[in-house]
Amino acid sequence: MTSLFEYAPAPESRSIVSIAPSYGLFIDGEFVDGTGESFKTVNPATEEVLSEVSAASEADVDRAVRAARKAFEKTWGPMRPADRGKYLFRIARLLQERAREFAVLESLDNGKPIRESRDVDVPLAAAHFFYYAGWADKLDHVGLGTRPRPLGVAGQVIPWNFPLLMLAWKVAPALAAGNTVVLKPAETTPLSALLFAEVCRQADLPAGVVNIVTGAGDTGRAVVEHGDVDKVAFTGSTEVGRSIARAVAGTAKKLTLELGGKAANIVFDDAPIDQAVEGIVQGIFFNQGHVCCAGSRLLVQESIHDEVIASLQRRIGTLRVGDPLDKNTDIGAINSAEQLARIRELSDIGEAEGANRWQPACELPDRGFWFPPTVFTDVSPAHRIARDEVFGPVLSVLTFRTPDEAVAKANNTTYGLSAGIWSEKGSRILQIANQLRAGVVWANTFNKFDPTSPFGGYKQSGYGREGGRHGLAAYLKGADQ
Amino acid sequence: MIGNDRLAVRKTYKLYVNGAFPRSESGRTYEVTDTKGHFHGNVAWASRKDARDAVVAARGAFAKWSGATAYNRGQVLYRVAEVMEGRHVQFCEEVASAEGLSTSKARAAVDAAIDRWVWYAGWTDKLAAVLGGSNPVAGPYFDFSTPEPTGVVAVLAPQQSSLLGLVSVLAPVLATGNTAVVVTSKERPIPAVTLAEVLATSDVPGGVVNLLTGDAEELGPWLAEHADVDGIDLTGAPAGRAMEFEREAAGTIKRVVRPPATEPDWTADPGLTRMTPFLETKTVWHPMGV
């Protein structure tokens, strides 16, 4: 599609970040070499190797857990709660001070547009620390009775789609509640977590309170299965979530899981169409669709189907796919070759099963991992693209005639993370929201997050909540527990 | 007055599924004795198929029970306490016989069981205020969180405490709006059968509670892996099997309550600990202005 306006490139400078040629692990307040085989992290937009990162072996993870245990017993646990809060406030401020650096680094390592890392990921990460900092000396008011206790050492495994933000969602409530952490960032996006380690040092956070062990699945397994970990928190695929739930079975470890989704985004015939189209775009193409709560199933009322699809296609035609560091970019790079292969495979299956694929004419860069924004129409609820999480910029469109049918179709999934409702009628919004089996329901908006607002799934999207007072319950035990 | 020479009419002890009292489809029964070894009856021995039927019934009842007003659910649970009170003597005899308790200890257990229903009846319309609330997000939204029931919950009831323990694990599942499939104490099932008769006459809709007399060791794996069961309470799981059941439950990301090392003191105040595991939190972002 020819665009009305030509945009001159407006690249954000990457000179603000300095990436070391290699990184070690962050254990007990020090950067140390890992004893596992190191791995390369690449810029998915160019396939350029950014750095070589240590992989933590079982022995390294054990050292990290011992450091966390020691810090829990000697420094962080006994510390005045108000002081714990002050450390978290410091971290929040440091994240704000170094926000641009984090944003550029995140876009380089992850492939997401700088507009999103700058305006969403990093500010929200700082906001999470600021929010939970305030809780540290108010735990008697969480709702678990007076003097709730921390669990101890938390083992946390996070995904590659929002590397720094997921770190914040995990680390901030854990520390506020008085726990210490061993965090494993995703294999393809370790750099912002390692920069966060530097922030911990600038904040003079006591050694061992935060430990960062980079690596792949084996490292994650070592964290989850370590005998001296009291709490496991995981965000990622439902498949890995199942294996983690199996691994902690029979132990005393407390577990929270934030897993996959296949959210319905329901557009009623009384919706503000232009606003809904923006919301559909935001719902599925935000972060290249690498979002567990992405609005990947569009349920549109039959009477407005053609109008919505025409408008949606026109809008998608104006999206700019390309250099993540260009401030004009709407859709960045797919995070890895592996993920790109999965998106291609499921899209091909969608076509083979009889759905209609539509993609705008858009030029993709020669190097790197790219997938154009894609819309499938004539999708039936039985199609794989209507059931499986694609985790990419691929929208499946289904229709409905009545509100009851919309609810039935929306709930027809093993997942239950999020949903969207578009309608001008407030009473309808509340009625439909009440009937949806999903943990987060957005009305006339989508993919909004806030540290005060609990987030998490029903059914096989996991259990436990992150955000708000509820997010603390995952890291505390009441006097009666 | 009934003379001493009257021959008693004995009861056939059956399952309680979908509001009815069927025998086990398997045709199986097993012998139940009191703690002194005296024959008490042949009790229906629920099979895997019975468990599956019970899940279907519980799923069918979920929409209505979870959709009922909290006030209505509270009244129904209070009604259970009222009807139990009328059967106080019967419960005391059965608990004393099943658990080998003195009359006064059996009476204390029955009293506590009835009072527990009253306690949970009072919770139904307070949970949303205590566990939910509005969230002050940085944007033009009325953002609020409410607790909602998880769905169908399988309960392996305690093996020792035949009535108070049973009520202590069942009532919180119902108070939160879930529906239940319960496997009763294997060796002490008689008070559970009587409780089923109470539930059947207490305005609890059919299918909301399904009570299976039988063996948790046999039925546990099927309920743990069943794809239409959303949560499982392993309190009464046989020693050494709970870990395996929890692993099975992981296949469908079930909410799991792990068994305590030994049966707890059921008279203790349970707090929220038996309700929150089977509650989800739903957060709604409602627009303001635009």
Structure commentary:
The complex is a heterodimer of chains A (481) and B (290). With 481 residues, chain A is an alpha/beta fold. Chain A has 15 helices and 20 strands. Chain A has helices at residues 58-76, 81-97, 99-110, 114-135, 163-176, 191-202, 217-225, 238-248, 273-285, 305-316, 337-352, 384-387, 403-411, 426-435, 468-473, and strands at 22-23, 25-27, 30-32, 39-43, 48-53, 149-150, 153-157, 180-184, 210-212, 231-235, 254-258, 264-267, 297-301, 356-358, 374-377, 394-400, 418-422, 440-443, 462-463, 476-477. In chain A, helix 12 (384-387) links the parallel strand 15 (374-377) and strand 16. In chain A, helix 1 packs across helix 7 (217-225) and helix 3 (99-110) crosses helix 4. Chain A starts with 21 loop residues before the first strand and ends with a strand. The mean pLDDT of chain A is 97. Chain B is of the alpha/beta class and 290 residues long. Chain B has one domain (29-287): 3-Layer(aba) Sandwich (Aldehyde Dehydrogenase, Chain A, domain 1), CATH 3.40.605.10. The N and C termini of chain B lie far apart (76 Å). Classes of the chains: A alpha/beta (481), B alpha/beta (290).
Concise summary:
Chain A has helices spanning about 60-75, 80-95, 100-110, 115-135, 165-175, 190-200, 215-225, 240-250, 275-285, 305-315, 335-350, 385, 405-410, 425-435, 470-475, and strands spanning about 20-25, 25, 30, 40-45, 50-55, 150, 155, 180-185, 210, 230-235, 255-260, 265, 295-300, 355-360, 375, 395-400, 420, 440-445, 460-465, 475.
